[in-house]
Amino acid sequence: MGVSLGKVERFQERRFGMFVHWGAYALAARGEWVRNREQLTDEHYQRYVDHFDPDLYDPAAWVAQAEAAGMRYGVITAKHHDGFCLWDTPDTGYRAGRDLIGPFLDALRDRGLGAGLYYSLIDWHHPQFPIDGLHPLRANPSAGRDIAVYRDYLHRQVRDLLTRYGRIDQLFLDFSYVGHVHEGEVVWGGKGAADWGSPELLAMIRELQPEILVNDRLDIPGDVVTPEQYQPSGPITVDGRPVLWEACQTLNGSWGYDRENRDFKSVGMLVRMLVDTVSKDGNLLLNVGPNARGEIDPASAGILRGIGRWMRLHQRSIHGAGPSAYTPPPDCRYTQRGDRLYLHLFAWPFDSVHLSGLAGRLEYCQFLHDGSEIRHEITDPDRPAYATRPAGQQPGTVTLELPVRPPDVEVPVIEIFLRP
Ligand code: GLC
């Protein structure tokens, strides 16, 4: 993947980021694909553009919520598929009345967080973007649209974004769909590398921002593989080699604000997704969809606070941590950071847990949330089970003694100090 270590280490040190999907669709409040799903005309959608006025927008408050949740970088949508731009781009009037992107990036940097951008390759508003099976006007496709004109516009906008805001750590381009299946049907007129001019675009991006990480949706290889709304079964590899990856996940299934959608994931589930991701050497980019006034809705804010309560006590098992060579017990995950091994218990095993391969390696261990000692023993493998005493474990196994009741944290974690 040819990227210098610095940016990879920074990315992997951070592990957890905030994805922000925001734009004119927040007014419709039915998710960011509302124009596609309801096949809305430009005229209909224009009401959301005309009334877009986020008077309560306070990027420092969003970033403070992200940081308190344990997030160490942010990625915001500069333009989504609807073509509406959140910065004062000189290339179209289809934009917010003022630059909403710069203040968010500044707020991230003010707190030492990484700064990233999302930019949609798809544009349902641009008059030269050829209509295809995903386009809102797909029922009455007008011919004679010139992708080359749109491509120039796309390259100009990306150049502008990567020139005016200083160093950008990450660029999430979205998405290519040649031969793509959407709602059970192959999308006609799907677009990819030739349509976007991907090789030239990527070369320009690298020239403007040598320290940037670009995702994998240009229809040519990027730096970061981006699984979406699922958890990979293990570390992701390409041609047998491990690659950088970042799972992007929603709080309720929708990226954009979706007022009636109450399908929120629990704090516990999201913490387990974060741990699972890091245990498989990935990053988690967790999304919020602020509303049209410019605020993160109370339910989403509450979930971020809940994750933050766990991260305040456990962040060192996430930031700068990664996979371990040891095999965890059932219903558990390991993350490791140097000589510290973190056992995350997704299900409470009650009484004891057996760690294979750690005999002689484990120097000391404690609950991470309160620093209290966890006693352990190496049992004689031939010891028979008798009354309250369990049978001996496989050679090389260390048995940890646990309390009957789990500690009152979303995911209990035991910090293991390994011998050098
Ligand atoms: C998909 C969705 C898009 C969203 C993106 C985030 O491409 O279509 O709306 O922005 O995923 O990963």
Topology:
Layout: H1 5-14, E1 16-20, H2 25-28, H3 34-37, H4 42-50, H5 59-68, E2 73-79, H6 101-110, E3 114-120, H7 147-164, E4 170-174, E5 181-182, E6 185-186, H8 193-196, H9 198-208, E7 213-214, E8 224-225, E9 237-238, E10 241-242, E11 244-249, H10 267-279, E12 283-288, H11 298-314, E13 332-337, E14 340-345, E15 352-355, E16 362-367, E17 376-377, E18 398-401, E19 413-418
Parallel strand pairs: 1-2, 1-12, 2-3, 3-4, 4-7, 8-11, 11-12
Antiparallel strand pairs: 5-6, 9-10, 13-14, 14-19, 15-18, 16-19, 17-18
Helix pairs in contact: 5-6, 5-11, 7-9, 10-11
Bound molecules: alpha-D-glucopyranose (GLC).
Alpha-D-glucopyranose binds next to loops.
Explained architecture:
By secondary structure, this protein is of the alpha/beta class. Helix content is 26%, strand content 20%. It is built from eleven helices and 19 strands. The protein is elongated and about 80 Å long. Alpha-D-glucopyranose (GLC) binds next to loops.
